[in-house]
Amino acid sequence: MLHFSEDPTIARFVPHVAASARQPEAYVWAVNAERAPDYWFPRDCPRAMAWATTSTTDADRERVLGPGGGDRVHAIEYGWLKAFQTVELFAYRLPAAVFEPFGTPVPHAHVATRPVRPLGPAEPVGDLLRLHEEAGIQLRVLNNLWPFWDAVTTTSLGFSAIRMRNGRPRP
Fold first, then answer.
1. DSSP secondary structure of 26-89
2. Which residues, 6 or more positions from 159, have their beta carbon under 8 angstroms from its beta carbon?
3. Residue 150: in which H helix or E strand, if any?
4. Where on the tree of life does the source sit, at the highest rank (predicted)?
5. Among 52, 93, 119, 122, which is disulfide-ready with 56 (CB 3.0 to 4.6 Å)?
6. Chain centre to alpha carbon of residue 84
7. For residues 40 and 4, what is the distance between their CA atoms, to the nearest angstrom?
8. pLDDT at residue 22, as a whole number
9. How far is CA 48 from CA 9, 20, 118, 140, in A?
10. 89 close to 40: Cβ distance less than 8 angstroms
11. Pairing of strands 90-93, 158-162
12. For the whole prediction, is pTM greater than 0.85?
């Protein structure tokens, strides 16, 4: 399990209720390697993401991912580009045994209900643009995420958005 943070000094993760939580339970949050790219961003950076799934139609793939676009696209706003390029992001490895999948119908995260100690020191993630490139993930920089998000959510692609409240208002 992985947890991404701009703070490289966390010695113990304690369950808490996030300010944006939809549930009242306190959790320590983590993701598996498959969902790690969702967090290759500054913490507060709004982002909208879409990816091909086994049920994605050719038309939706062409419309959203485009020719040569690979299987996944992440979008951020221009106002966040400098932070994206300069953030110092760290990854913590956490013991998988204390976490349970979270989210339905497909889990998008893992949660623990007790404090968790990292398996070692935080590791620098490095250049986020390079990570996207090496993973074959398109990075789009848009004036406003909402038109992209509204289009993506009507497709057969998988999709997720994080911290949209920190982006520009819906036009």
1. -BEEEB-GGGGGGG-S-TT--EEEEE--TT--HHHIIIII-TT-TTEEEEEEGGGHHHHHH---
2. 48, 49, 50, 51, 149, 152, 153
3. helix 146-152
4. Bacteria
5. 52
6. 13
7. 8
8. 82
9. 29, 17, 28, 10
10. yes
11. unpaired
12. yes
Lowest mean pLDDT among 18-27, 72-81, 113-122: 18-27
pLDDT digits (tens, 9 = 90+) for 83-140: 999 999 999 999 999 999 998 888 899 999 999 999 999 999 999 999 999 999 999 9
Domain ranges of the chain: 2-166
* Residue length of the chain: 171
Q: Which two tokens stand for residue 141?
A: 């920089």
Torsional class of 37: left (φ above 0), alpha (ψ -120 to 50), beta (otherwise): alpha
Residue 78 region by backbone torsions, left for phi larger than 0, else alpha for psi between -120 and 50, else beta: alpha
Contacts of range 31-35, beta carbons closer than 8 Å, 24 or more positions apart: 31/1, 31/2, 31/3, 31/4, 31/108, 31/109, 31/110, 32/1, 32/2, 32/110, 33/2, 35/108, 35/109
Encoded tokens for 10:
């966390």
Distance (Å, rounded) from C-alpha 148 to C-alpha 77?
11
Q: Which amino acid makes up residue 117?
A: R
CA dihedral 44→157→105→31, nearest 10 degrees, is -40
Amino acid at 84: F
